[in-house]
Amino acid sequence: MRIDLHTHSTASDGTDTPAELVRNAAAAGLDVVALTDHDTTRGHAEAIAALPEGLTLVTGAELSCRIDGIGLHMLAYLFDPEEPELAAERELVRDDRVPRAQAMVGKLQELGVPVTWEQVARIAGDGSVGRPHIAEALVELGVVPDVSGAFTQQWLADGGRAYVEKHELDPFDAIRLVKAAGGVTVFAHPLAVKRGEVVPEAAIARLAAAGLDGIEIDHMDHDEPTRARLRGLARELGLLGTGSSDYHGSRKTCRLGEYTTDPEIYGEITRRAAGAFPVPGAGGRA
């Protein structure tokens, strides 16, 4: 089985619609794909309706969190999307996205960048607007060569010149809320130092003690020594270790299935989940 547990669609900051994403996942030879848009489950219904035969969909979301001033992303799988407390927190994060993005556009304008809110809104379309959409605007304007080039201290990285904070969950609350909704939590790309400051291993141990289920190990932003370090940490803390592409369509260079999760780990994730169940494809036409 080929299992990719971290992808994004136009419901957040990917470039594939949810329907295109599942069709592309099937074409890439995947057996299982998780749709984990940022702080939203809005793409799930379309993905399920279009799900090709032979492909299983894991519903999820990537939750924006912050601990000790450091941003982190928590992958949440197979939770009940209607659970009211978790739904309310996701809504708070989403509601903060537009004013935050507008504030970042304002900062960029003060720095002499001729970006406009209308340009960013056009790029975001119906998705949950975020830094990748602003980064793409900077690419269009020739300010940076690619999206990754915008995530530096000069521009949009945490603490960068145009960075603006947003409402984010405490990760301990995120674990508690996802568990209460029957879901499973995995810390996404925990040692992706190229993205900025990362959470220390002592904090990961505290999260594990609080009920964190796993950490994402095989990821494009982890080199091989980092993956080896994370495998050891997972063994030490009794955490599941996953692998994923973090696919965003054409917005990033990673490919669907570039990194995958061991079927035994996937089986354990599904065994722990009680809020929702993987959806087998039935040859959708959406």
Essential attributes:
286 residues, 8-stranded mixed β-sheet, alpha/beta, single chain, 8 strands, globular
Task: Give the helix level as a range of percent.
Answer: 25-40%
The structure class reads alpha/beta
Number of helices: 10
Largest sheet properties: 8 strands, mixed
* Low-confidence runs: none
> What proportion strand?
15-25%
- In N-to-C order, the SSE pattern is EHEHEEHHHHHEHEHEHE
Give a structural overview:
- The protein is of the alpha/beta class and 286 residues long.
- It contains 10 helices and 8 strands.
- α1 packs across α2 and α5 packs across α6.
- The mean pLDDT is 95.
List the topology elements:
Blueprint: E1 3-7, H1 18-27, E2 32-35, H2 44-50, E3 56-67, E4 70-77, H3 84-95, H4 97-110, H5 117-124, H6 131-140, H7 171-180, E5 184-187, H8 201-209, E6 214-218, H9 224-237, E7 240-243, H10 263-272, E8 279-280
Parallel strand pairs: 1-2, 2-3, 5-6, 6-7
Antiparallel strand pairs: 3-4, 3-8, 4-5
